[in-house]
Write a structure and sequence with these properties.
Number of helices: 12
Oligomer: single chain
Distance between the termini: 73 Å
Largest sheet: 6 strands, mixed
Number of strands: 11
Length: 344
């Protein structure tokens, strides 16, 4: 009997150790998806880079698995994450401007020279001022960021003045890009980015507003013949990056804290750096394809700024309607852009 008791005690100890080990190594696998291709910097570098950072920060307790196909049209991504079709993804506010008007702050003309500068400054403004409006209600917002400075790309003629844009059909993602096209006398075609090659190659669109990255990501170096560059771009696009709320709530506090440590501003900086690197590749592709690249003249820049100035006032009114001092936030955003550009 004594021998059996000893064996039972040993067995109980082994079982308890085994259970403890199982609990320590418990793993959560979350799904993520992207509405652009696997080699696009959003998919490869932003989602992929963040996923690697999450796995490291949680010591392997949380892993992410990329779905082979995005479960919705790009503009439906918010609902797809909220409803649990995928656990983690992103959407540009340009595709959902009625739902997410405040992130359009980062799309307004006159932002910084790089995606990293814009993304970090925008992130700081969002968490300080805009998050209180809760425009991402229904999901767990993890971060916000922007793409690189938006420029003008055309197929048949160079754009050197506002008059050159009159009546041109310009593919746009919506939001400030669409509003800018209208303000400059063009006719915007609001379509998701992946449709750009078909629109331009078929002649349905005469040009597009995009960051330089998109030239290579969507093979536009094969159809674009002219590019007009504005210092720091004349618009941008802002993104929200989020997780299904139920999946977030089921994570341990330890893992939530670990994920937060690689999200927020850290995610904004990761995304900004990735986009800046991709912009350089896009510019190199333009040069290799012998695309005519022109720097916008000071007069052209001034004219564009004057015609798009009402968009800033529209954003201020929208922010004021949500209880946010819009003019104060715009001014503070531009000060933050300078701080980030200076390395602060």
């Amino acid at each position: 009997m004594k021998f059996n008791l000893i064996k039972l005690a040993a067995l109980a100890t082994a079982l308890s150790l085994g259970l403890g080990l199982g609990q320590a190594s418990a793993q959560t696998t979350l799904t993520m998806s992207s509405w652009v291709g696997p080699t696009h910097p959003l998919t490869r570098d932003v989602l992929g880079g963040w996923a690697a950072a999450v796995e490291k920060a949680t010591q392997g307790r949380v892993k992410l698995q990329m779905l082979p196909k995005h479960p919705s049209a790009p503009g439906g991504t918010f609902d797809s994450v909220r409803d649990g079709l995928v656990d983690v993804s992103y959407v540009t506010a340009s595709y959902t401007p009625a739902r997410h008007p405040l992130p359009l702050l980062a799309e307004l003309p006159g932002a910084g020279a790089t995606a990293e500068i814009n993304s970090v400054a925008f992130s700081r403004m969002h968490w300080k001022h805009l998050q209180a409006a809760n425009e991402y209600k229904g999901v767990k917002l993890l971060g916000v960021f922007t793409h690189g400075p938006g420029q003008m790309f055309t197929v048949k003629k160079q754009i050197s003045t506002v008059a050159d844009l009159a009546g041109m059909k310009i593919r746009s993602g919506g939001g400030i890009s669409e509003a800018s096209a209208k303000a400059l006398g063009a006719s915007p075609l609001v379509k998701p980015a992946p449709e750009s090659y078909e629109l331009l190659s078929s002649g349905v669109a005469d040009g597009t507003f995009f960051p330089s990255e998109s030239i290579k990501s969507f093979n536009l170096d094969k159809v674009v013949k002219f590019a007009t560059y504005f210092p720091g771009g004349f618009y941008s696009s802002s993104f929200g990056f989020f997780m299904n709320e139920d999946k977030w709530n089921k994570l341990s506090k330890q893992d939530q804290d670990a994920i937060n440590s690689v999200s927020g501003e850290a995610l904004a900086r990761l995304a900004g750096k990735a986009w800046d690197a991709a912009d350089k590749i896009g510019i190199d592709a333009l040069k290799a394809a012998s695309v005519t690249i022109t720097e916008a003249s000071p007069a052209f820049v001034a004219d564009v700024r004057a015609r798009t100035a009402p968009l800033v006032q529209d954003w201020i009114k929208a922010a004021n309607a949500k209880g946010i001092d819009g003019a104060k936030v715009v001014a503070e955003f531009h000060e933050e852009l300078k701080k980030v550009a200076a390395g602060n």
